[in-house]
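Notes on consecutive records. When two proteins share a document, each keeps its own sequence and its own token line. Never mix them. Below: protein one.
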Amino acid sequence: MKITDVRAIQPIGKDSPSDWRTTLGQILVAIDTDAGLTGYGVGGGGLSGIHVVKTVLRDLLIGRNPEKIPQLWNEMYQATLAFGRKGIAVMAISGVDLALWDLSGKSQKLPIVSLMGGNPGEKIPTYHTVWDFQDLSSVAEHAGFKLHLGKVAAPDQQEIMISAIEQARSLIGTGRLLMVDAWMKWNVDSTIAISKEIATFNIEWIEEPLSPDDLSGYETLKEESAVPIAGGEHEFTAAAFRPLIQQKLHSVLQPDVCWCGGLTELIKIYKMATAAELRVCPHRGAEIWALHAIAALDPNPLAETGRPWMTWVEGQPSIENGMIELSDQPGFGLTFDEHKLKLIH
């Protein structure tokens, strides 16, 4: 089997937000082969990511065997090294890598989870992200909830945040998980102070309180935060996760498989984290792209709900009573009608 074409487009779904999550957050990559199979993957980078696919990655892949995924990943990384390593170039590679994995599953007539040694059909608990504690009253089916405080994260809003977290715990009761997302807007002092105030509410983790570049700050939080720290959503490649894991700067690692380099890199991150006895909880894990890895590799599976505006992804399993499970369809088990997709130009 050989690759005959590599294509990338940017679909837009219903109610897609008018910010970077739409313009840069997702692209659809399709890889065609001479065997009549097409593999699909979702990456990122918007029109810039598409440019990387069309001008660099496509030329590298045409005529190649798509089943040599690790070799192709390394070659794509080297081809973008001068302008890549992180960000848009790796987000583009992510989509290509996932499409290669989809092809591998389809060619072997197996779901991706089976290629990694797992089984389809196992039920995985989910947690839901909300932007206002009042939204918790209508989503009680999930195993847990993450309160996103990115809109009220200024230093003079600490009391507002603490009050919101307290009310969130009151609304969901004591039997469900509760997490807090600071979206890189806190600092070391405010994180320590808030963690001490909210520890009594049994918080599973504080997510990304600092910039991903502030490793020394995370080193301090590792020792002084009263609540475990999570992060990695905005980090790229297993190489960049290595110091986070070796120094145990995060208790919970949250790679986004559509951004961090694809399934090839997510598997490496899982292996390193497992050896270090750290937890992995992929960003948007209930989306099909990471769900296969969670089902196959995670001893304590928990999947975050995905992007509701990704309505153009057909075949994504639904969440029933707070649980989600994979089908036994080959590859990722998705279908795309490319002719009906509404595109961003």
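Protein two starts on the next line and is unrelated to protein one.
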Amino acid sequence: MDLLCQKLLSQWLLVILWCSIIATIFQHVSVVSLPNNETVPAVIVFGDSIVDTGNNDYITTLVKCNFQPYGRDFGGGNQPTGRFSNGLVPSDIIAAKFGVKKFLPPYLDPNLQLQDLLTGVSFASGGAGFDPLTAELVNVMSLSDQLDMFREYTRKINEAVGRNRTAMIVSKSIYIVCVGSDDIANTYSQLPFRSAEYDIPSYTDLMASEASNFLQKLYGLGARRIGVFGLPVIGCVPSQRTLGGSLNRACLDSSNQAAMLFNSKLSTQMVVLGKKFSDSRLVYLDSYNGLLNMLQNPAKYGFEVTDRGCCGTGNIEVSLLCNRYSIDTCSNSSNYIFWDSYHPTQKAYNVLSSLVLDNKIKDFF
């Protein structure tokens, strides 16, 4: 009887250990069950600072965040990896949701191993946009540059594992595109180059045209399961409130209207492309209403502060302005929707990713 009890106890301990390991791997992220027992070989991401996991660390640009207090809650704490948040960003969270891995590494990391490549990377570069001028102005990697890196990526894995396995990885992976906020918030609203030439309807036409071209090129390179984030409620991020929301720092309605106009054009383009490429799954991901819901009902999701970031005053600090010398940085970022004046906290990214993605998972298959 004692021996039986010992065996049962050891089995329970093993179960508890495995549960602990699994919980650690996907900490704070709800893994979503995939339809028809589907498996996803890799998650591959293109875009801007929302999904950049550190590529800008390896290029010459001022758009960086590889210093404290960024990464304050990443891993074991105080690990500024180049993610524009206090911890995980949507690239990581989405990779975990699809059961692939906990962290999605940046493609430019020189320490990448073959297994890192086979399970996916982020090509995103903070400061990029659908408008090619957006990346050029701040010397970061444009969507065109990111596609070139993807071509190089597929050559690398083809050399390592052969044509058949590469074709399987490329066709069955989940692709995420998250970009465009900087086009409206920075290139159009803060600088004279585009606003002198375009009004908002024609500028969002330009963005939508570039988005369509990018998606067609990505399809041409073998991608089939593609999720594209619409623009969030840009006018309500703290920096936009500070720069254009008058003394009471109200949401900037013009930026929100521009985001909604672009989103309607983007979703329409995706429907058209979905019909053109009938073997693809193009999934529009509505981050506008997701973030708006969080801002309008913060207590529902466990937040208290919605109009400023945790870093410094939270009104204007972002990238180089959010640093270890920023005074008044909050002690509990989980109370805040925003980490700096532009980017959400890890907690907010987790909530937003679930609101936007969980009920759309089935549409990828």
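For the record: Strands lie at 43-47, 174-178, 225-229, 281-285, 305-309, 336-338.
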